[in-house]
Description:
four-stranded antiparallel barrel; eight-stranded parallel β-sheet; single chain; alpha/beta
Amino acid sequence: MGNVRGRLGMVGEDSLPLEYGIFSYCDLTGFVSVATLKFRRLKFHSQNSFSATIVVDSLSNRPLTNSRMAAVRTSGAVVLPSVLFCDFAHLADEIARLEEAGAQALHLDVMDGIFVPNITYGMPIVAAVRSCTKLPIDVHLMIADPAKYIDQFRDAGADSMTIHLEAVPEPRPVLDRIRKLGADAGLAINPPTPVAHVVPHLASCDMVLVMSVMPGFGGQSFQPIALEKLRYLRNLPAASHLLLEVDGGVNHDTIGSCAEAGATLFVAGSAVFKQPDYRQAIADLENRALAGAQNASK
């Protein structure tokens, strides 16, 4: 139980009584949470300002999450350009081009040469990207023993951090630590990993990243097993609070099916960076994703 004052962002169900509902709220420190909450002494001071005592958070009494990720949660489809594909000799220029092209968030792939066979970059590149932009930075930690490094990645500017279920014996303490640091916590699963293995840990997650290729290798084809996992999670009540992200082989041909299956976050590498016009590439991908999502609602 705790007291909260802030600004009401969204009520998920207008039909619910005011003391119980799905709220997006911002506290006085600027952090945002999206949760199913039960309130006592809920008092509205204006149209969107309130104070209350939180009695129950059905998503497991989780701390407030990162404010930059709030806009990502309310978008129907978000294409996250994978910075790994950019021209690192002109990193700042590339980030500026992505901003001008309408990118809503950026995805950074961290590989350690242990959990995956390739090595990419670490905290200095995350910090460099942070210095160039205010966009949300989504960091995908394809590393062994991520608990050793999450504080440093948060300090470098990560707004969300995703660890791999296959990399840790017990993910919950790591996920809880990520959220305590003020970042969104994600859990990734590789194509061979049964989706049911992620279910016991969903209460500590803000997102699940479904890999549609094996991490660490480029040029792989999209594996349709990812669609089955997305559909499962979309229809799972315990996952209703989650952002569903897909990574690997996401392009103009596959993004619609991913959205129709339930994904709202789409990591795209060559589908953006190998195109001459970033704006057109991102817009086309997002339009195809929105069309796929509409097909799912029919």
